[in-house]
Amino acid sequence: LQLGSNPIFGTCIVDLEEKPVKSGGDAESLLQDALKASPNAEEAVLLQLVVKQIKRPSSTTTDVSLSAMQLLFVKERGDYLAALHDKDAKLLPVPLFKDAVGGNSCTLVVAAVSGGDAVGETNILKNVLRLRKVKNSPSRSGNLTRFVEFTKEQERKCAATLESTKDAAEKARNTRILHKLKVVLADAQELMAKPEGTKPKVYTSSRTSQDKVTNGVKEKLEDTKPNGGSVLRDSEKKKEDETKDKTDDLTAKVVPLSRVVCEKGTAPAKKKAEDAATAKATDTATPSQPKALEGGDSAGSDSETWQTSARIAVTVEKKPTSNTIELSVKGKARRYGVDEHLQYTEGKPLESKLAKRMQIALGNGHNTALLAAEVIPGLAVEKQVTWNIVQSILEGVLKEKKDGVTNEFTLYMSVVKGKQVVCDLFSGSGPQPLVVAISPLYGVVLHETTPKVVKTAAEVEPALRSALTKASGLVKDDEYIVCTAVLKQILEGDVKVASLFAMSALDMRPYVGVMEKDPQYVRQLFGHAFIGSCSSVLLVSYAALDEKSTEALNAQGKMVLRNGKSRGGSVKTFVTNMEEAVAAAEAKVQKAATPKEKEPLEASLKQLQTRLENAKELLQNPKTTQPVAYAAPQEEGNAVDSTVRVVAVVTEKRESSGPWNVKADGDGFIVKAKGEEKRFPVDEVVQRASPVAGIRSTTVDSMVEQLLRGHNSALLTADDEGVTAGTDMLMHCARSLFAKLEEDAEVFVVLSAMKPDCSAAKDLQKDGAEYEPVSYASSPLFGPCITGAKMEPVTTAKDLLAKLKNGASVCEADKAVLVSLLIHKARRPEDVVLSSFLTVLAGTNVKLYSKALEVRPKERGILQYAFGGPCVTVVFLGLLAEASAAEAAVDFGELAKSVHGTSNSTVRDGGLRRFVMFSTKAQAQMQLRLRNASGTEKERLATTNANVELVLKDAEEMLRDPKGRPPKVYKQLH
């Protein structure tokens, strides 16, 4: 099976016959023919359609959109549904369905039951229920114009990077990336220029064979062209709604698109026969030769590093006679070579040449990684081969004595499961969200975990034993242990920093899962070992060749990691390079013409300056300073796009034949005012045939999903005279929230009426309340609200809608602004998550928002989180097409123009467990400063410390007993 990808509509099967589809009848005919050709109940049938839509909003403009639809018929295969949920590469080609399950598709599962086969149908329904709990990401636009604009920007950035790059390898890589971008851009522009006669193109990776794809293992973290390199790495790719998928696996191979596939497994009969012959020839051929010890990029003396991953296989059975692994995989013989095939005797040191090479490389300041699958049944965690090797490497580095050189390690060890740190093994602290910190010198470490400093070889074994003893009862199935040992090597006039990154799992699932982009794994954690500046080793320990060990060894044999060239860990060299980077960044800031251009450049400059300052501090005070790692932005699949979105609803009056003053125009709207037309950009335009018609916005729907995932959200509305789009959308969101609410979740509401000038407010849930001078309270987790307003629990959508409708009526009568704050409280295993949904119904008072944007974030009052804070924000504009006066629409458009494309700060979930851990550490630092302070500074710190203690106390009480307990807010001091 060969897969291809288009950056807009995703993955499909290539090299199959094309069938044009012009009508629903055509599609039905194709489907019926396919089902007739596949009478076997064990075979799945896939109909895959690519839709090209051509729209002409005006005589001079043409919009082209691309999208795809998959219809998968699994017949009686309940296990196929389970495989879709589990991303089981044994039963199906996982990448083909990555959008449908957990991706950006709108997915529907239909189960037809008859009662005839109770067991089989129960299995089907059980797996349908599992799929029903999968939450897909918001769907993305297939608009080609936006894609071209985005790709042009990436091309410009890549060209600038290429021009400033001095390293030859980096220059070559960027040259390849630029070429691929040009190919993709040219194809997209050709399609836009001639939409009727041009077919969309699909790009394949010629290095990804059928065997590699169908068995769930690829050669690299990203697919590559024959000449290597990726179009856009994750770290370089700006998250844009207009791109449905990354373009890092593209070549210029063109394939047909609309197709019918009958699959048992995956491929048509003729192709299966050809593939079977190929597989037979491959399986019986000479085994692949190990590369880490013989030739290639890893050849040479023991002190050299390597870029192609090495393999070690370790058995407790009789001593191996060769470095060839012989397996029987699904009845077929398979052989592959390893660099070392060793025998392990429990309790004795393992003699490994590769381990010795890792020790030497690490001691010379180069990063190393050991990725292990420990498949020996019943072997205690503390006796695993991984830790035997880790101990020998660390002891070896510390025992080596060189004149003028001092070595010490800082160890970080944790048990991880999915996206959670189950246990920090040096502190014993319980579950917390997994956050990766990245050092530009030594790679990755788990953020906010406890370090253990080891300065002598004698300290290594007790430190490891203490940690592994805690881990022994925690690693049961899909948990794994992560260790980062950071070497700080102090020399005369320099410091070297490097790491040994070690990971021990009970099988190969984490590594294969990351390559298949399984969303349950945090890919940033693996990125350093997979593609970073690092020499990596893949290890499998096994006993008998049973099913589990065969699966692990087979995956090891297929996996090849291509790492970046080792840069060495010299801090002195790093400081020199960073000084050049800071100077270049300062020059870019100076050249920026507008605040919008300058803002991201200044943020980047600030990051570079921080890294430079920390490196200089380490160089100047190496004995008392530790190398710093920086919390990474949350990755794709886990990341939340904090870009402020703008939605415009254009409503037409019933039976109106008057001239329009406002009309939709693609990704924006046009206002006709004073004899001229002005166009304003938005992210989504919704056209409504009448004021009573329903409104559905995918942008707002995705915002409600973010609320349910634990992220703060804000809906900021403005409506022209006679339009109630904001109120209608608030009611829709309230219904949607309760429809999707988990069983044990709770919702609290704060409702206030606020004067348009924000000078006074009254509580809409307090009888007889009057307008009082406004002040604000706040929660460090879910943001601001109006001081003194009651926080009431609501248990049904009916109750909430009644409160909102009453509040809207009061505000209409008072000519006031409705401020609604919903607080969502979700209970997770060992955690409580708080998030807010702020809605402001400003009516025509759009200046409420404009004024907030003109002041500092701390002075924005109720909008402090919505504009600039950790919040997913949508600005929602209700416009009237036949508005008699267009001035209001122009004001709305100016607001849209000012916020469109701007970004709020990083959005994280409101987990109390993480908040308590972070605040406890911050408080410890504050108390240290308090002891050394004096005068007014001491008073200020004492007040802040008391406030932190109060917040921590409330958070811990909520964690102990969350049910029915309302969240606390605290009066703001500014």
Automatic annotation (TrEMBL):
Compositionally biased spans, kind Basic and acidic residues: 233-250
SUPFAM superfamilies assigned to the protein according to its UniProt record, in alphabetical order: P-loop containing nucleoside triphosphate hydrolases
Protein name as annotated: Uncharacterized protein
Start-end of Polar residues biased regions: 203-213
Low complexity: compositionally biased ranges: 278-287
Disordered as annotated region, ranges: 196-250, 265-307
Gene3D superfamilies in the record: Kinesin motor domain
PANTHER family membership: PRESENT IN THE OUTER MITOCHONDRIAL MEMBRANE PROTEOME 22-RELATED, TRANSMEMBRANE PROTEIN
